[in-house]
């Protein structure tokens, strides 16, 4: 019964995701998000959503009246069951694909606590990957942010 409920929840989530994408294009010409790279011992924690393919950093939209760093902390909690202690700004990036005008604050954390994770209707998996052995199904932007973090330097700005 739990598997049926999870499948139905996943299907509903996929439909909601596509509806949100349409709503964003129509009513939110500019969006702001926050994501975080969780890294330890040359490994990065990535999540897989139930409603889209690939591995991503935990993160999501910034709520009205919410500071960027608090959004990153909230999203890390919601999506990865991670409580962030230290948080560092990596950069601010823009994405104009598909007619969007998305802007993203990218943070990193090496000091955090993880609690056990159970897949749910939004997040299908949470896994560690060695930075020199990343999964094939990550975007070029995810790969580039990991490379920038490893390279160090001041915060950056650019296109995702």
Describe the structure concisely:
The protein is α+β, with helices and mostly antiparallel strands and 160 residues long. Helix content is 32%, strand content 35%.
Give the full name of the CATH homologous superfamily.
Nucleoside Triphosphate Pyrophosphohydrolase
Helix and strand run: HEEEEHEEEEEHE
For the termini, the CA-CA separation is: 41 Å
| Estimated radius of gyration | 16 Å
CATH fold-level assignment: Nucleoside Triphosphate Pyrophosphohydrolase
| Class derived from helix and strand content | alpha+beta
Q: What is the CATH C-level name?
A: Alpha Beta
Q: Which architecture name does CATH use?
A: Alpha-Beta Complex
Number of helices: 3
Mean of residue pLDDT?
Answer: 92
Total E-strand runs: 10
How many structural domains are formed by the residues? 1
Task: Enumerate the spans where pLDDT stays under 50 for 5 or more consecutive residues.
Answer: none
Amount of beta strand: 35-45%
Helix content: 25-40%
Describe the structure.
The protein has 160 residues and is α+β, with helices and mostly antiparallel strands. It has a single domain (2-159), classed as Alpha-Beta Complex (Nucleoside Triphosphate Pyrophosphohydrolase), CATH 3.90.79.10. Helices cover 32% and strands 35% of the residues. The protein contains 3 helices and 10 strands, in the order αββββαβββββαβ. The strands form 2 sheets. Strands 1, 2, 3, 4, 6, 7, 9 and 10 form an 8-stranded mixed β-sheet that branches. A two-stranded antiparallel ribbon has the order 5-8. The termini are far apart.
